[in-house]
Amino acid sequence: MRLSPRVWVGAALSAVAVVALAGCSGGSWEEKCSTNADQAIECAPEDRAPAPKVSGELLDGGQYDITQDRGQVVVVNFWGSWCPPCRAEADDLESTFAATRDQGVRFIGVNVQDSRDKAKAFEQSLGVTYPSLFDSGNRVALNFEIPPNSTPATIVLDRDGKIAAVFRKPVLQSMLQPVVARVAAEKPATGGAVTTPTSSDAGSPSAGSPSPVAR
């Protein structure tokens, strides 16, 4: 049976998802990691691969570069307004962010294959307070090898900018927060200082402060 172009592309993207993120280190780093009871991949510090570049324009028009959050644990969530599971997990992501931000944890969303207006309306309706990159061209998503059919996906980066955990499905607070807390409790291998948000950070994107731009 001959597959239609749409089915063929979907199958190809699914194949990419099987090896998602492997390209970040140019090898099979995931084979050194373990899968927990919630089907998340967790990597011991010595087995972690460096994360690719995460930077670009925020939904509100500002700029973000993940290097400004080096020394923090960074949770990167890929989402779209067209994605029902993204709506389902939004409250759990926001609750986890609120519960862990004082531990030196930042959240950054990556909005993929979307229009800016739809993305803003979607996030404003959910009241999420951390910022999002507007990745309409999938540049950041492709850097992480996250195809559209793998959305939502959530990646936890340690304080050294390495991939500590990967969720390739909608998350619940009960599965995400323990992983984030474990990574946040680690000391950075580089010896960098661990900082926590202060009142002076309130207006900065990296602080995840409340703004009209959600996630």
Which key terms come to mind for this protein?
single chain; 215 residues; alpha+beta; Glutaredoxin; 7-stranded mixed beta sheet; two-stranded antiparallel sheet; 9 strands; 27% helix; disordered N terminus; disordered C terminus
Give your account of this protein's structure.
- The chain has 215 residues and is of the alpha+beta class.
- The protein has a single domain (5-207), classed as Glutaredoxin.
- 27% of the residues lie in helices and 18% in strands.
- The strands form two sheets. Strands 1-2-9-8-5-6-7 form a seven-stranded mixed beta sheet. Strands 3-4 form a two-stranded antiparallel sheet.
- Strand 6 (105-112), helix 3 (116-126) and strand 7 (132-135) form a beta-alpha-beta unit.
- The protein is globular and about 40 Å long.
Helix content: 25-40%
Structural class, from secondary structure content?
Answer: alpha+beta
For the record, the count of structural domains works out to: 1
What is the oligomeric state here?
Answer: single chain
CATH class: Alpha Beta
Q: Strand portion, in percent?
A: 15-25%
Order of helices and strands: HEEEEEHEHEHEEH
How would you characterize the largest beta sheet?
Answer: 7 strands, mixed
> What form results from the Cα inertia axes?
globular
The rounded Rg comes to 17 Å
> Taking strands numbered 1, 2, ... along the chain, how are they ordered across the largest sheet?
1-2-9-8-5-6-7
CATH architecture: 3-Layer(aba) Sandwich
Number of helices: 5
The chain-level mean pLDDT equals 81
Distance between the termini: 43 Å
Low-confidence stretches: 1-27, 196-215
Q: Examine the coordinates and then state which fold CATH places here, giving the name of the CATH topology.
A: Glutaredoxin
Per CATH, the superfamily is Glutaredoxin
Keywords: Cytochrome c-type biogenesis, Disulfide bond, Isomerase, Redox-active center, Signal, Signal-anchor, Transmembrane
Signal peptide: 1-22
Domain Thioredoxin: 45-185
Subcellular location: Cell envelope
